[in-house]
Amino acid sequence: MSIYRNHPWESYTILSNPSVKRAIEQGKITPLGLGGEKMQPTSSVRTLYHPEMDWFAKFSINVRLTNCVRKNAWYELDSAVQLTSILKPIRENEQLHNPVFKVMTEPYATTLNLERVAERHGNDNTKARESFGILYRENFSLSEVDILKPTLAGALFAYDRNGNSCIAQRLKSKARTTQNRYCDMATLWFERYLHCLIPGVFNYYFKHGVAFEPHLQNTLIGFEQEMPCCVWIRDLEGTKLLPEFWPEDSLNKLSERARQSVYYSREQGWNRIGYCTFINNISEAIFFIAEGDEPLEQTLWNAVQRAIVRWQSVNGKEPELEALLNGGHFPSKNNFTTRLMQKADKESGYSQVAAPWQQREKGAQHV
């Protein structure tokens, strides 16, 4: 007998599935209830962690958080594993050239197939397959945990239970210890963070046609002497590819449905990385670091501008970045209206927010 695990929150959905009920009646499945080692939930709740496991375990929970039901769609189980294999040469090459930007792989997935138990219940079988789906994501080594102290960006750029900025508290302590002014320490820390984040995101997108989702919940930061020294990007099943870099024959390991799910146009890809990187990551970092100090806030935004210029000076100009530097806008995803109109995430609209280094009137333009 083999034991198969699922997230406790998903057990109610699983046990109410007609195909699962039929499998239980036939003695193919026996519910065992709660058991095993205690696991720690990560920010997504459905991804669980144990320091002695080689993998994070990403389970399905049929709960809608923001715009998406947080289940492992059957085609995502396929695409995440295949993308790990497909992107391996790029990842190894980028890791050598830019070791401070790390991508967490998802090389394995498991699920249960109940088609032989309930052949005529295709939709129920698919739902069961998704409910039982588990993605296995690369875990940190014990030395990485001890030395680099990986920390979720969303846990740093946030308020603590007393209403204090978590990152500001850290920076104030570091400034006192090193006898620096807060604004100087904050600027240095932030520039180190940009150095770890921006080149990697841009390299994958503009050089390889790979659009990650580097928002606060998908970005983890490693530290040396309390200063950023690397970042990890996770959530490979949410990664998208640009067809001009990835013709269909290069993705022949993917099913047709999985291939459709990973393809984004260049505009969609730029909206994705532009929103996640600048709005849902960097702007939050600046907000919690500056704490309303407008001169410091402007200093940090100017550092973002310099980071973009620096990347282009080495790698060449890209139209999206040139537009941004010359009076352009950041794409800001309209999550509320996307959910209100019940649109797929791929169909989200975006509001265009003027780059803060531009001397323009305040406000956003909706598109």
From TrEMBL:
Pfam families: FhuF, IucA_IucC. It comes from the Bacteria. Gene3D superfamilies: 1.10.510.40. One of its GO terms (molecular function) is acid-amino acid ligase activity. Residues 188-346 form the Aerobactin siderophore biosynthesis IucA/IucC-like C-terminal domain. InterPro entries: Aerobactin_biosyn_IucA/IucC_N, IucA/IucC-like_C, LucA/IucC-like. One of its GO terms (biological process) is siderophore biosynthetic process. Residues 7-156 form the Aerobactin siderophore biosynthesis IucA/IucC N-terminal domain. Belongs to the IucA/IucC family. This is Aconitase. It comes from Vibrio navarrensis.
